Every structure is written in C-alpha cells, then in structure tokens.
Amino acid sequence: MDILLPYLNSIVLTAILLFCMLSAKESLIIGGTDTITVTIIWALSLLLNNPEALKNAQEELDVHVGKDRLVNESDTERLAYLQACVKEALRLYPAGPLSGFREFSADCTIGGYCVPAGTRLILNTHKIQRDPRVWPDPSEFKPERFLGSHKSVDVKGQHFELLPFGAGRRACPGTALGLQMSRLVLASLLQAFEISPPSNEPIDMTATAGLTSSPATPLQVLVKPRLPASVYE
Ligand code: HEM
C-alpha cells in the first residue's frame, strides 16, 4: 500500500474512474493534449531552476542549428542534450504519475505476497522513477545521467525504472508523437528566446494531485528574442 498512499484520494480515484469510462476518441484527445503541455511546462521550470543546464541546451542548439533559421523536427534527432532534458523532466514529473489499471488474470505470488486473480493494480510511476536504489540523487535534475550512466535507459516501456508512457499492451499509443512534440516545442522556445524567471525566487515545483500532474503555481517566464529579427518573419 505504501506506493499508493501519496496519491490515494477521492479526487484522483474519481478522475481515474471517469477516464476509464471515456470512449477511445475522448481518451485520445485528453491523453494527447494535457500531457504534452505539462511535460513542456515541467521541463521549462526545471531548466529555469538549473541555469547551467539551460545554457547547455541553448549552446547545443546554436552548434547544431545555428541562429540563421528556426529549428525543425529533423534537427531534434541531433540534439542529444535536449532529448536528455525531456527524458529527465519525464522522470521527475511524469505527466501521468499513476499508471492505468491492470487486472491480474491468474493467481500469482509476487515478492512473497499472494495476489488473487481479479486484483487490480495501479503503479506509482512517480515513486518508481525517483527510487534512490536506481537513480543517484533521485530528486536532482541531471540530464547528463541519460548521456552517461543511464544512457541505455529509454522511455518506451522496456525499462521498468522509467515508465512515463507506461508499458505493455495498454502503454501510451502516443509515445512517439508525445516525445517528438515535447522536444520540438521545447527546442523552438529555447532557440528563439532567452528565458528567465520573473523574480529571484526559484520556480515553485509543487505538483497538483490529479490524473495529470500539473504545476500548482502557473509558470511565468520572461522572454527576450535571441535570434536576428529576420528569422522570426
Ligand atoms: C508527453 C506526452 C504523453 C505522456 C507523458 C503520456 C503518458 C501516458 C500514460 C502514462 C498512459 C498510461 C499507460 C499505462 O497505463 O501503461 C497513457 C495512456 C494513453 N495515452 Fe498517452 N501520453 C502522452 C501523449 C499522448 C498522445 C500524444 C496521445 C494521442 C495522440 C496519447 C494517448 C493516450 C491514450 C489513448 C492512452 C490510453 C491507452 C490505453 O488505455 O490503452 N498520449 N499516456
């Protein structure tokens, strides 16, 4: 039960039940809009709180794309540091902190516990992805870990320590689109603008409890163009 407690409240359960009752089309729309938006907001917030990482991501853009044109979708394949920033944001703040329901189809024994068929399970992805036995400095924003020690760990449901899109038959069908859009929008913002927080206070990283984990405080950012005026036309 320990892994469920932080999120077990009636609002979350009601939201999960409602989500399960939605048609495929409705879940596709809900699954594909909020999730990408909050992933980008968390990534931006983390970068604003870690100016060194922000500088690295912008320098990478300057090297691989330059300042004479806007970044495009195919450029993002070469932006290893930016990709690592998105992965690290998905690790620390998965848009869906809880998985969908799974139901045991047969009696099982797991870790010494007897689990009867029909038992329903929800994974606490948020907690798994901050497990200190797997992730050194689990609550720190360290995109570099995905270029070094955790380079081989991806988000596609094969590595159970990182499951921002879930795993198995009911994993997110929008994984590729979600990743690509998060990378492209973030890259476009970072290339086109100097971004800074509106005050010297760190960005509040408190998350709301809900089906999608959003920042409790709306993110405010100051932006300043960083490309020649002709590029924006
Ligand atoms: C960064 C973006 C996204 C994140 C982090 C995300 C995350 C997730 C997660 C954690 C699940 C539950 C998986 C499980 O229980 O194993 C899920 C399910 C789902 N997602 Fe996404 N998602 C994203 C983008 C999208 C997009 C772009 C679409 C559609 C265009 C989409 C459509 C869905 C649908 C329909 C489901 C339900 C699948 C099922 O129950 O079989 N998602 N998503």
From TrEMBL:
Its cofactor is heme. InterPro entries: Cyt_P450, Cyt_P450_CS, Cyt_P450_E_grp-I, Cyt_P450_sf, Plant_Cytochrome_P450_Monoox. Keywords: Heme, Iron, Metal-binding, Monooxygenase, Oxidoreductase. Heme binds at C172. PROSITE patterns: CYTOCHROME_P450. It comes from the Eukaryota. One of its GO terms (molecular function) is oxidoreductase activity, acting on paired donors, with incorporation or reduction of molecular oxygen. Belongs to the cytochrome P450 family. PANTHER family: CYTOCHROME P450 (PTHR47947:SF39), CYTOCHROME P450 82C3-RELATED (PTHR47947). This is CYTOCHROME P450 FAMILY PROTEIN. It comes from Salix koriyanagi.
